[in-house]
Amino acid sequence: DAGVIQSPRHEVTEMGQEVTLRCKPISGHNSLFWYRQTMMRGLELLIYFNNNVPIDDSGMPEDRFSAKMPNASFSTLKIQPSEPRDSAVYFCASSRGGAITEAFFGQGTRLTVV
Amino acid sequence: KQEVTQIPAALSVPEGENLVLNCSFTDSAIYNLQWFRQDPGKGLTSLLLIQSSQREQTSGRLNASLDKSSGRSTLYIAASQPGDSATYLCAVRQSGGSNYKLTFGKGTLLTVNP
Which of A1, A23, A106, B41 sits CB 3.0–4.6 Å from A75 for a disulfide? Predict the structure, then answer.
């Protein structure tokens, strides 16, 4: 299994531009998480999907952020318009579903907004 | 709201030493606790998963314990090696309802000196 795959690995964009981050979870996993990591705040949950349905989006900072999971094998996190304070590493994780299973993380996307 | 605290924030030890990393959480209503390792610029690698009904889990030189009632977990690393240098993160999976999100501590940065 290739693990959780995220793209791109690095993204540099100008303030005001739209940014789209992509995630392919592990096949057979039906829970998907988007996290943001910064030095100041550590790992913060942005949104959690179960069976492609958003269960908890309380961590999405503001309306500029949106996430979709159109099918079990693909999810996107979009920021529009982007701001310098959005600069962080964004991680996607998946698990097989249910509460007792292990979560596996992708390699992350390092976003820099200038 | 669940809060996860890791102590110490940083630890430096000589090679060969046994060491303990600590994790505490405020809400004991959890399904499980997971320990991760993160190398600089990399994603999170799962080390051990302890279910709420378990007291400990072992993998090689790693041993993790869980005392759910007191809200504490420890990660014991035996005979530390320079290759163990990384940030170690603990995360708890909340129980209740269908929200299986993971809440993370801010990690312990471990340096093992040759």
Answer: A23
DSSP 8-state code for residue A15:
T
Tokens of A92: 């996607």
What would the two tokens of residue B94 be? 């909340």
Which letter, b or e, does each residue of A94-113 get, where b requires 16 or more Cβ atoms within 10 Å of its Cβ? Answer: bbeeebebebbbbbbbbbeb
Cα(A96)–Cα(B49) distance, rounded to whole angstroms? 14
B38-62 pLDDT, tens digit each: 999 889 999 999 999 999 999 999 9
Instruction: Tell me the torsion sign for CA atoms A22, B43, A33, B109.
Output: negative
- Using CA coordinates, name the residue in chain A closest to B102: A45
Cβ pairs bridging A and B (under 8 Å): 59
